Amino acid sequence: MEIAGHRLPEGSCWDWEVTGRDPGALRLAADHDLTYHHALEVVFVAPALVSCPLAFQDPVFRAPTAEESARLARTLGETTPVVVAFEADAGGYEPVSCLIAAERVEIRHGLVRRSRRAPDPRTPGSGAPDAPGPPAGGTPRWPGVPLSTD
Question: What is the pLDDT of residue 41?
Fold first, then answer.
C-alpha cells in the first residue's frame, strides 16, 4: 500500500482513525485493532482540505481522479503538493470516497499505547493523589476501609 509516494509497511492495518486534527496537522492512526495501541501514524502537515470520516476500515488508496483534482482547484484556488484519495468502509452500505490535500505527508512507525487509565490511588508510588483522609500530621492514612480491630 502506498500514500503519496510513501510506501506503508506490510502487515494488517485495517482499522484507521483520526487521532488529532488542527490547522497544522491531521493525524491518522492505523493498526489491526485500535483498542490498546497503534503502530502506524500518517500525519498530513498543513491540511488544506479534509474529506474523510473520523474512523474507517480497509482503505484503498489511489491517485485522485481528474474530477477530484478539478474540484480541489475550484475549492482551494491553488494546487497542493500532496493529494490523497481513497475509498474506505465507514460503516455504511457502500464504501465512502475520501480526499485529503496537504503540504506534505509524514509516515511514522512505532508502537503507541492508547490506554490511559487513571492511576490507582491505593498503589504506592503510582503518582495518584493520596486517598482521602485526615490532613498531614493526623493519624496515618489507610488506603481501604477501617479494619475491624480499630
Answer: 87
Q: pLDDT (tens digit, 9 = 90+) per residue, 46-58?
A: 999 999 999 999 8
Q: How far is CA 88 from the centre of its chain?
A: 16
List the domain range (segments joined by +) for residue 32: 2-113
A 10 A CB-CB count for 28 gives 24
Question: Does the residue 16 lie in any domain?
Answer: yes
* Gap between the Cα atoms of 120 and 126, Å rounded: 7
> In this structure, what C-alpha cell is assigned to residue 121?
490511588
Whether 24 maps to a domain, the answer reads: yes
pLDDT tens track for 83-138: 999 999 988 899 999 999 999 999 887 777 766 655 555 555 545 455 455 445 55
How many domains does the structure of the chain reveal?
Answer: 1
- Confirm whether 59 is domain-assigned: yes
Rounded CA gap, 122 and 27, in Å?
Answer: 36
Query: 80 near 102, Cβ under 8 Å?
Result: yes
Helices then strands, counting H and E runs in the chain, come out as 1, 8
Please report whether residue 50 resides in a domain: yes
Judge contact between 30 and 56, C-beta under 8 A: no
